[in-house]
Amino acid sequence: MSHVAIVVFPGSNCEYDAANAVESLGATFEFVWHTSADLSKFDAVILPGGFAHGDYLRPGAIARFSPVMSAVQEYAASGRPVLGICNGFQVLTEAGLLPGALQKNRGLTFLCQPSTVRVVSNRSVLTRTTAVGEELSIPINHFSGSYTCDDDTLSALVANDQIVLRYTANPNGSRDDIAGVCNSAGNVVGLMPHPERATSALLGSEDGRALLASFIGLSLPQAA
Asked: Are 71 and 33 a contacting pair, CB within 8 Å?
């Protein structure tokens, strides 16, 4: 059974959503406070959404200095799976674990709405069980979710197949419609949409289940 670390910073507020999602898939979890320095016993690590350290300076800029991020760096370097969702994605870019950055949405508008993303690459831990071209309904909930990078970084992302998901109708002004990227090894992934909020038809979509099951290395339960 997969055992997942869910890292909690002061200001995180989506940790229980992530916990409920991984439990629904048959995994176990522990909340890991940001002062922790050892992640070795876990099979996967999630940095959930929220407002780490109140998003002071800019989202993720302070969280990157939390002691747990040294452990996340080591964990990622060992090839094990790390996922940053929304604010967690911002933290991973600030920490240099993922390329690019997240800036304020086009129009300076907070967005909380359904979105549709298309799978661009299935070589990441998040999308390895999906099909390229598959479209998924995953909600977004962010103010600083517009992905940006320089021309050289974008060229490298395309050449190395590191763009994981693209929006089908870009809601926030992200460059090249990017909704999620991975590192060159494919084991560290960040995305702005919230797959943990798309795990039940009662929530409007079950499309997040395939992504999270892929990430934690579990097979989806078969329908009866």
From this structure: no
What are 63-122's pLDDT values in tens digits? 999 999 999 999 999 999 999 999 999 999 999 999 999 999 999 999 999 999 999 999
All residues at 6 or more sequence positions from 161 whose CB lies less than 8 Å from its CB, including other chains: 121, 123
Q: Which residues are catalytic?
A: 86, 194, 196
Q: Which neighbouring-strand residues pair with 147?
A: 102
pLDDT of residue 202: 86
Kindly give, in sequence order, each residue whose CB lies less than 8 Å from that of residue 108, ignoring residues fewer than 6 positions away: none
Bridge-based pairing of strands 163-167 and 178-182 is antiparallel
Domains defined for the chain, CATH in brackets: 3-216 (3.40.50.880)
The two structure tokens encoding residue 31: 């909340």
81, 172 in Cβ contact below 8 A?
no
Evaluate if pTM is beyond 0.70: yes
